[in-house]
Amino acid sequence: MPQSLTKIILHIVFATKNRKPFIYREVRPALFAYLAVVTRNLGCECYRAGGVADHVHLAVRLSQTVSVAALVQELKSSSSKWLKMQSPTLSNFAWQRGYSAFSVRDSGLEIVIRYIENQETHHRKRSFKDEHRETIQRERIAFDERYVWD
Asked: What DSSP letter does each residue of 109-127 carry, written as one string?
């Protein structure tokens, strides 16, 4: 019997609209758990979700039946609605329009997971913009700076 075999691991990153620090420390654990559930409900596996006040990272194994764009769209739309219900101070919450998704080798998954787990410490030394710009350039992805930070 024919089989379709895949193991596509992604490091997904998206930020709050205009980098506003809406993801309060108190809501982060529940948000990251929520993002993991949304991922799993789409048939994907969430190895780790994390982030800081203005952006999130996810390490995900992509299902054979969902596209990257569909996964990210569902993550952003459902979590945006969920966040708005958590507190009146989040009523204006919005994610940026875009996102980044990078392929990860199986052998590099643990490095990405540790990186996601250490976001708080990591961004004390380096800004999200500087680091993300460097990652995009290192991955040789063509981009227009005017549209990356909406």
From this structure: HHHHHHHHHTHHHHHHHS-
Decide if 59 contacts 104 (C-beta within 8 A). yes
**Between β-strands 45-52 and 8-15, what pairing exists: parallel, antiparallel or unpaired?**
unpaired
How many CB atoms are closer than 10 A to CB 77?
A: 12
Beta bridge partners of 46: 60
pLDDT tens track for 2-43: 788 889 999 999 999 988 999 999 999 999 999 999 999 999
State how far Cα 100 lies from the chain centre. 8
The dihedral built from the CA positions of residue 73, 40, 47 and 49, taken in this order, carries a sign that is positive
Contact status, residue 32 vs residue 116, Cβ threshold 8 Å: no
Q: Is the whole model's pTM more than 0.70, yes or no? A: yes
φ, ψ at 11 (rounded to 5°): -110, 110
- Looking at the DSSP bridge assignments, the partners of residue 50 are 57
> Which class is domain 8-148?
alpha beta
For the chain, the residue count is: 150
Please provide the DSSP assignment of 22-60 as one string. -S-TTTHHHHHHHHHHHHHHTT-EEEEEEEETTEEEEEE
